[in-house]
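#lab-general

N.A. 3:47 PM
ok so I finally got the sequence cleaned up, no stray characters, all 188 residues accounted for. can someone with queue access submit it? mine expired

B.Y. 3:52 PM
send it over

N.A. 3:53 PM
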Amino acid sequence: MALRDQSLGCWKYFTFICFTLMATHTVIKSSFASGWNYDVILSYEEEEETGNNFASNLYALLERANIKVFKNDAEISKRGDQISPVLMKGINESRCAIILFSRNYASSTQCLEELSLIMECREKLGQKVFPVFLMGVEGSDVRRQKGSFGKPFGQHQECFEPEVLKRWRSALEIAGELRGWNLKDKHG
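B.Y. 4:20 PM
back already:
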C-alpha cells in the first residue's frame, strides 16, 4: 500500500507539471514563425534516466499530452565537455526548459554547459525554466553549490578556466532561486 501511495504522489507531480506546461502551451503555441520548434527541453544527468525512471516517465507523459519535447538522447550528445550543435539548437528552439536536478547533476560538465545555455536563453529569449529538485537535492544546495553541488567544483577547478566556473556557478545560483518542484521521496 505504501508503494502505491508513493507512486500516486509521483503521478501528481507529473500531472501538475503537464498541466502547467499545457496552460502555457495554450497561451503561446509553438511555431516556426516564433522561433520555437519545441515546447520544452528536458535537461538531466544521463545516469538519472537509468537510475530513476523519472526523466523517461515525464518525457512519455509530456508526449501523451501533445507537448512537443526535445529530449537530449545519448546519440545526440556524446559524453564530453562540449554541447553538440544539435543540442544547442534544441535548447535555443525550446519555449520552456525542465531541469531535473539530481545529486550527480553538477558532476557533469555537459549538464553545467546546458544549464548555462538555458539560463542565457531565459534571459535573452524569454524561455521559461522549471526546476525539479529530485530526492536529496534542495534549491539551496543548487543556489549555494553546497553538498553534492559543491564537491564537483573542486575537480572542475583543476580543469577549467575561472570564467567557465563563474558562468556555471552563476547559472546554478539563478536556477536555484527559481520556483520549482521538490520531489523528496525516493520514488519521485
